[in-house]
Amino acid sequence: MKLELKLGLMTLWGKWNLKAKVATGASAAGALMGLMLLILWYRRRTSGKSMIFWKKGSDINQKIEAILKNCGPLAPKRYSYSDVKKMTNSFKEKLGRGGYGEVYKGKLQNGEPIAVKVLNESKGDGAEFINEVTSISRTSHVNVVTLLGFCFEGHKRALIYEFMPNGSLDKFISNDNSSTEERQLGWETLYQIAIGIARGLEYLHRGCNTRILHFDIKPHNILLDEDFCPKISDFGLAKLCPKKESFVSMLGMRGTIGYIAPEVFSRNFGGVSHKSDVYSYGMMILDMVGGKNNVDVGVDDTSELYFVDWIYRRLETDKKIGQCNVMTEEQNERARKMMIVGLWCIQTDPSSRPSMSRVVGMLEGSLETLQIPTRPALSSPPRTLAADSSATDNLVSRSSDSC
Predict the structure, then answer these.
(1) 239 - beta bridge partners?
(2) Is the pLDDT of residue 57 over 70?
(3) Fewest C-beta atoms under 10 Å: which of 29, 160, 321, 331?
(4) Active site amino acids
(5) pTM for the complete prediction?
(6) Domain CATH for 105
(7) Helices (H), 92-244
(8) Residue 275 annotated as binding?
């Protein structure tokens, strides 16, 4: 009886053990199958992303090759990222920081000094990079900065420009620096800078085969060489347009607060065109006059209106522009021309603003021929929103819209 019971228990144990092994095997097979499916799904997904990234990279490369082909012998040179590191001594000397990257000083193999703008890796799919290379590769003018080369290697992108030893104009007209003797520019120098910038913009609007609208004219984007000759830089927001087109279509707003034309901020003021650059130029040369006189235009939301009122009061009362009236008659005349031209350029109605060709003529002509325009009803965003760079960056559109 005991033997039969023992045999029965052994039989039951064997059957249970077999079922357990089968169940364990099935579970393991199921887990393995799930793991294999997960791996296949992950590979397919990452492969798709890699294909998309490769396709985008391929598209940008094709655009770059087309640009270089169109430029012919004047095409900027393409460098590797290791070349860029050598040029900048591993990015040792930083010159400044912009909305899309940092600028470093470097030098070419022949010893020529250069400025290298290294674009942020997180900034989009390369549209801004292509936009700048495309725009500036089409230019050749004494008042437009020269693009010497570029680097496009995966996410690593850099633009190589001629070096401007005197930096940007904003350092010389900022209120913070106006009391520093070495930062002072004479009225004659300011006047020549205003004319040079106007000629550069006239060239972009009329002198190129394809009209270039800059959309970010401001003191920070005006570079000065050793002789204080101004050069327009930073074409990341520029648009290329056929000359026959009067207006351009644009998604959103682009530019820097304080220099954005009303129609760019709100289409209720009219169509966006080359006259939008004229407005930015007008605000800039008024800043040049105001900065020279240490006028505070950053007090509150009404500061821009206050600033323009200050300009009008000086013109209407025929007071000398300079502090303590330390100006010659010739200097005062040129300062007044800058003020009158600036006021014409910032008229709210784009059709009331002069072309850049007309601006050059007004600056170089006689003061007696210039009439003071009516006060513009300023409707651009208040300057206090641009107190920090993040506010400005948030109002910069990088969309690849077309003309």
Answers:
(1) 213
(2) no
(3) 29
(4) 216
(5) 0.76
(6) 3.30.200.20
(7) 127-136, 170-173, 187-202
(8) no
Tokens of 167: 């930096």
Report yes or no on 6 lying in a domain.
no
Residues 102 and 229 in one domain: no
Q: Which of 300, 313, 318 is nearest to 343 (CA)?
A: 313
* Mean of pLDDT over the chain: 77
58 located within any domain: no
Residue range 135-182, pLDDT digits in tens: 787 788 999 999 999 998 888 899 999 999 999 999 888 755 444 444
Number of helices (H), then strands (E), in the chain: 11, 10
Task: Flag whether 23 is in a domain.
Answer: no
Give the pair of three-digit tokens for residue 192. Answer: 């020549």
Calculate the CA dihedral of residues 290, 292, 295, 297 and round it to 10 degrees. 50
Residues 253-300 pLDDT 10s:
667 888 999 888 887 888 889 999 999 999 999 989 887 665 554 444
Burial 232-244 (b: 16+ CB within 10 A, else e): bbbbbbbbbbeee
Determine the structural domain holding residue 381 and report its residue range: 170-394
Q: Any idea what the Cα angle at residue 195 is, between residues 94 and 368, rounded to 5°? A: 150
Structure tokens at 299: 């007090």
